[in-house]
Design a protein that fits this description.
heterodimer; A: two-stranded antiparallel ribbon; B: mainly alpha; two-stranded antiparallel ribbon; two-stranded antiparallel sheet; 14 helices
Chain lengths: 375, 366
């Protein structure tokens, strides 16, 4: 089907070009039988990317204000409220992490926000010295969400000890300041990127909407590349490495994303929801606009004789089922109950082949990022 | 089976060639695939592997200075070499590259190798000859040109590091990393050609070949063999395994370039199982050497350390035949003091391993 359609398009395009040679110039660029990429990008830019950044940005307002409250009065209620806001912001980040191009890429936002595991030795040394610049490379794993995870859940063995760490334990004043600094630092990074996207700020949205081609710097090209890059972070860092996929099946529970708050599995589920939304062109409010799914259907892309879009959606659904069956405490599961985690990993890989190979080749997009290889 | 097929094919080609006039490039035909006879594909870059093998060679040269008594081997220099920091190498190209051995070592074992370097320095500070309970240099009782530095339990730490890194870096990287589905599976890019390196899939396959340490015209050419290729050649007279491995590398690479994904996986499996077989056979080879030299402290301890190092290396394959607990059991048969090892202990270890690898019929010839 795909081949036939392509040649049809070619024949049509060729006749149009021949016809166009007798007509006015303006009509040369009339897209014939072309997928409405501009419309798709409009959906992605205005209904997904911008609102997702906006929501993340707003959630940081709450996070900062609750951090101020907690550090002013460190008690259980304020800790609980802060933790809730923190988890919510972290989940909101899952819906932005795939857009590491343009402003996010300029600010290295993904690594800034969420390099894990956190370097607790570095965090503690920053706290005890009270002198640090969070923007330096050495602090990249001492200043992201995983660091807040440590600061809110890991600085004591129970909540009493954790509250002590902000009221009486050595360096508690510095620790409060560090928590505030980290939260504010992340907020300012998010805000920078959000403003750079918005039409009233850097207006990258305009650039995004108008790079309608399929070359490496087109918006579709960037988005498909980064969707895959981010998806591979799920495969390798969220699941694979803790599961022991890079250590001959010896699990590394200490490598999970939320080591202290113990909601790594929830984050993984949120991340796959985000990836699926992007694939479908679906906003977080559930409104499903024009996306990669329509694009693949439009060009009639197939996988082993079935419509590629259908196969991808089935695999998303299989993966989500597997994720639902994955225990919440991922660090414990990779050691004591690895089967459901392995199942998730297999499902991730099965979908990866389609997202990274079949989809880009059907769309004529090059995957240009390099696997982390070194040689 | 494979060997037979190849032999027959090669034979028929040479017969054909005899009727022709032009020089025969002897391609091997594997089910329609054009497979060249040497690893002379376009866009092959294995410089990263060669660099790391060269780095290890410099480390070994330094470590072996400890075989001369009263020569202290600096652990900090060795660690600098392992990490490639502070320009520790004679070869300036190694110093200027960002590559190093430690980042490619099986992640969980890097601490062991670093600790061995400290132990080696400690042993090299001994001012007395080595003996049971005393670290130091021991001279062979049968060939006084051979002498080795052992710790107080007769372990030659230099071998633990050299042979260990052959496993923990080269073997592990090739079998578990580059030949994994992540690196050569069907989702890996086999379309975009990077000049000099080929596609990502081709490059990963080449990197696995690079760690094998063979020249491109192996096994016709067996000079200049490095590390694993050298050991493959050691056990080849018994196992006839050089050709099996080389042909799998050649066929798999040709399959990738031709887009034949099934053939690629078949050859990947052949490489993994036969490379593992080389490793197991080398262990048995060194057990045999230890038995022959059972009363020569220097040679026995030296060969036993080699055997134990290769035995441990078996764990680095993701599809290994042996289990980790079997490795530990066999190691326990030898014990942790090579001065106290017994003939029956070595024989038991050798028999256990040869049974696991189906090498019983050739175990005494290795």
């Amino acid at each position: 089907m795909y081949r036939i359609n392509r040649s049809l398009i070619f024949v049509v395009a060729a006749s149009v070009m021949m016809a166009a040679s007798c007509k006015n110039k303006e009509e040369d660029s009339l897209p014939v039988e072309e997928f409405d990429r501009q419309g798709m990008l409009n959906n992605y830019g205005n209904n997904i990317i911008l609102p997702n950044y906006e929501r993340l940005n707003n959630s940081f307002d709450t996070l900062v204000s609750l951090t101020v409250t907690f550090t002013a009065t460190p008690n259980q209620i304020n800790l609980d409220n802060l933790r809730q806001a923190f988890k919510s912001s972290w989940k909101n980040w899952m819906h932005c992490s795939s857009f590491e191009f343009g402003p996010a890429s300029n600010n290295i936002l993904r690594q800034t926000m969420n390099t894990f595991p956190a370097d607790t030795a570095q965090i503690n040394s920053n706290i005890s010295s009270g002198s640090y610049s969070l923007a330096t490379a050495a602090n990249i794993d001492a200043a992201g969400f995983p660091s807040i995870d440590f600061l809110l859940y890991g600085v004591g063995t129970n909540d009493t000890e954790i509250l002590d760490a902000y009221t009486i334990t050595n360096n508690y004043l510095n620790r409060k300041q560090y928590l505030l600094d980290v939260v504010n630092y992340l907020k300012s990074n998010v805000n920078t990127v959000y403003v750079a996207w918005s039409s009233s700020g850097g207006n990258y949205i305009n650039t995004f909407l108008n790079a309608t081609g399929t070359d490496v710097n087109s918006s579709t090209g960037l988005m498909v590349n980064d969707l895959n890059f981010d998806y591979e972070i799920l495969k390798n860092f969220r699941i694979g490495i803790p599961l022991g996929k890079q250590t001959l099946d010896i699990p590394l529970p200490e490598k999970v994303e939320s080591l202290y708050g113990k909601f790594s599995s929830e984050l993984a589920r949120e991340h796959i929801r985000a990836v699926e939304n992007i694939y479908l062109g679906r906003a977080r409010n559930g409104v499903d606009g024009k996306g990669l799914d329509e694009y693949l259907s439009f060009i009639g892309a197939n996988h082993n004789g079935s419509p590629l879009n259908g196969v991808i959606q089935t695999r998303f659904s299989d993966l989500k089922t597997a994720l639902d069956n994955m225990p919440n405490d991922l660090a414990d599961a990779v050691v004591n109950n690895a089967t459901p985690v392995n199942d998730v990993y297999q499902k991730i890989v099965q979908l990866l082949v389609l997202l990274k190979t079949d989809m880009p080749s059907a769309l004529g997009i090059l995957i240009t990022y390099q696997d982390n290889d070194g040689d | 089976m494979t060997i037979n097929k190849i032999t027959i094919l090669a034979l028929s080609f040479s017969l054909l060639a005899a009727c022709k006039k032009e020089p025969d490039p002897t391609p091997i035909d594997e089910g329609g695939l054009e497979v060249p006879s040497t690893y002379n594909f376009s866009n092959v870059d294995i410089s990263g592997q060669q660099t790391r093998m060269g780095m290890l060679a410099e480390m070994v040269t330094l470590m072996k200075t400890g075989n001369t008594s009263l020569t202290v081997v600096s652990a900090s220099t060795l660690k600098n070499m392992y990490r490639n920091q502070n320009s520790p190498f004679n070869n300036a190209n190694y110093n200027s590259t960002a590559k190093n051995l430690i980042s490619k070592t099986f992640y969980l074992d890097t601490t062991y190798y670093l600790a061995y370097m400290d132990s080696l320095e400690m042993a090299s500070m001994s001012t007395t000859p080595g003996s049971n309970g005393v670290a130091g240099v021991v001279v062979s009782s049968t060939d006084n040109s051979k002498k080795y530095l052992f710790n107080e339990r007769g372990v030659e730490i230099t071998q633990l590091i050299e042979k260990g890194l052959m496993g923990g870096v080269f073997y592990y990287q090739a079998l578990a990393y580059y030949l994994s589905d992540d690196e050569i599976g069907n989702s890996v890019d086999n379309t975009t050609v990077t000049p000099g390196q080929g596609t990502a899939m081709e490059h990963h396959w080449d990197e696995a070949f690079g760690y094998f340490g063979a020249p491109i015209d192996f096994p016709t050419n067996t000079s200049g063999l490095l590390y694993w290729a050298k050991y493959s050649n050691t056990v080849d007279p018994v196992l006839f395994i050089n050709g099996t491995l080389m042909n799998a590398f050649l066929t798999g690479r040709a399959a990738i370039s031709a887009g034949d994904m099934n053939a690629k996986f078949t050859q990947r499996d052949i490489i993994r199982s036969n490379w593992e077989k080389v490793c197991a056979a080398v262990v048995i080879h060194y057990f045999n050497e230890a038995l022959v030299n059972i009363s020569d402290d220097a040679l026995r301890n030296h060969t036993l350390t080699e055997a134990i190092s290769f035995l441990r290396n078996l764990k680095y394959s993701p599809v290994k035949v042996i289990t980790n607990s079997e490795i530990a059991q066999i190691e326990a048969m030898i014990g942790n003091n090579f001065y106290n090892v017994t003939i029956s202990g070595i024989n038991n270890a050798k028999d256990a391993l040869s049974t696991i690898y189906n090498l019983d019929s050739v175990k005494d010839n290795l």
